[in-house]
Protein 1
Amino acid sequence: MLNFDFHNPTRILFGENQIEHLAQLVPARARVLVLYGGGSIRANGTYDAVMAALDGRTIFEFGGIEPNPSYETLVEAIAVVKRENIDFLLAVGGGSVIDGTKFVAAGSLLDADPWTILEQRAKNVSAALPFGAVLTLPATGSEMNSGSVITKQATQEKFAFMSRLVFPQFAILDPTRTYTLPARQVGNGIVDAFVHIMEQYMTVPADAKVQDRFAEGLLQTLVEEGPRALAEPDNYAVRANLMWTATLALNGLIGAGVPQDWSTHMIGHELTALYGLDHAQTLALVLPAMLRERRDAKRAKLLQYAARVWGLRDGDEDARIEAAIARTEDFFRAVGVGTRFADYGLGKDVVPAVVAALEAHGMTNLGESGEVTLNVSRNVLERCT
Ligand code: NZQ
Ligand code: ZN
């Protein structure tokens, strides 16, 4: 196991009606900005529950944060923060709203164009406003981590930053708030969480038994509960298990002290920036292709994954590895997320543009060992047809 420094300051309040506790969580004298997306929270009662819990407070609101939140929209929120002297932010929504709120938290206290936070990967962030989150979509893990992914529409760039200063102070996880999710977002969330686990697990052995077994338990939970969430949308136990799995998938715990490989995400971000695919759609495309392309480098972990997650223990090793990758792909399809370019109306002709974007953004040595060069990424993308 590698050395690590694990520190996660986010307080989690999990379960039905936990929104009622907002009054104790948000400082009484704060000037609060509630940030949200395109209106789902108004349609499903979450907005009303939040406002009822914060009754009597000084509240401002900023709606309209889009999926794959944009710099262009978020600078408007920063303007509201400055104009109204806001000193506490509350994100109510999915990963896009929480990521956007992190950007607003840091960008509001920065004496420069906030896009420099992305360009400098947060090296210039020395302060951020405090904020909390009410999660409505289990997927990204943003509710309990310090990462944020922002898109600049003008230049079609989608970049991530991480800063210890943008951990949420608290996150409210009420599984009943996810009942209204459209099937497409349920499937997306399952695939995103699955791939987060894989990017921290599917590398090379590091003698990290707890991280491995924890990761395998989370993967098995997604395999068991994912299709059930689509078949039984109001099943509380299923939603609760999915929600906690997605949070634990990317709160730092399973990634502590192990090699990581974020190449699928980095290639995926370029696909979203260029062609507007949902984040999870890009992952369902790239991950199986990446595993096939790098099956030799990842051989030991692929065999472990085949055995422990899919029960494939007998027969030829190469056949077991291929079967495990095929099961993974079948699983993504079973939760409604396509795994080939044709599923999204794309073809092989997109490959040069994606490779050029990776090159322009310095994504030339990805993977746990830096082995994923532009040539490897090109091969991976060619396998997505
Ligand atoms: O905008 P509204 O109207 O709220 O609708 C949203 C949105 O259209 C809807 N939705 C959310 N909760 C709902 C609901 N609809 C009905 N009922 C509910 N309870 O779902 C749609 C998608 O929401 P979004 O927040 O975009 O989805 P997700 O949570 O999957 O977030 C994706 C973003 O997170 C980034 C992605 O790149 C992408 O920009 N990621 C963030 C990470 C992080 N911070 O650690 C890691 C991830 O790898 C990922 O990159
Ligand atoms: Zn992701």
Protein 2
Amino acid sequence: MNKVTLAENIYWVGVVDWNIRDFHGYVTKRGSTYNAYLIRDEKTALVDTVKYSFSGELLRNISDLVDTQNLDYIIVNHVEMDHSSSLPLVAKQAKNATVIASEKGKDAIIEHYGPEFNIQTVKTGDEIQLGKRTLRFVEAPMLHWPDSMFTYVVEERILMPNDAFGQHLASSQRFDDEVDPHVLMEEATTYYANILMPLGPLISRKIQEVVNMGISPTVIAPSHGIIWRSNPGKIIQSYLDWSKFKSKNKLVIVFDTMWGSTDKMARAICEGAASEGVEVILMKLRSTEITDILTEILDAKAVVVGSPTLNNSIFPTLAAFLTLATGLKPKNKQWGFFGSYGWGGGAVRNMIETAKKAGFEVHEPGIEVKYVPDGRFEKVF
Ligand code: FEO
């Protein structure tokens, strides 16, 4: 492996997953990486591991730099399996290593992999001295699991916040100044929208807490994607903006259609809003990934959702979209609903009920049209 150096004796030892396209429902069109870091000092620490299927590559990357048996610490910032499922294999070789985790992390390690680890728990502010370097820990519960924590290399001011500030982006490059900045921010936005969107208040409080602890990173090294070293303040500011749901004069129309009636309604809404100077994004399910729709919704002021009625209820693609959207709890948005039906209807009513139950700000009534909007069928697809 070519050595990837974050600072003297601090290395990226992760792996690139070029082929992953579905990350438990999140469509990762540009693949991903599982980042792990190795710090060599009087004592040697590995920060996080990788997904089990890449464990051989991780072990090779480590052994290119140190004898794995001599690892002193394995830091587990987060137990989700994309970062911890190689832990048993690494720990088997690093027989004398102490595993470092939060209290909840310890529980999760035991519940995932059994009790056979030498685990030392840490709390916010605790430090471990490796030699010249100090590792300081910051618990980050529910960002995004109860066990989550950040590791900070004090002397080099490198923050390793695991999932926070990541992107699903496979690349032969490792640093932000080496990749297309637009692609990088697109993937960082998609990642935030699809994973971290409901955690906005926690995120802004955690960023403030980290600042109050005197942590001012010059490098942010997340567990997925590209490492921020040219301007880490940019991604921190983006997280603060996203966490406040800063929005613009933008409408997202999400719909699906059976025989074109809901499609016609969607286009009419699109034309009307655009004629008023609103930026409109029209997104048809079955032609668009929900992952991309949720990303567009992040900075939209309004979302209107259209569904034909099928079996007296919501069309299945819209039901799946609403399940994800209500779970991610986007705030500061107006929601509207529309759709077509043949006889009894039900889709619009059910969508409104679902949205109100989730606490969305719903514009009522919805718009429903029987059969064909202007009484005239036209081939629209
Ligand atoms: Fe990348 Fe929460 O795992």
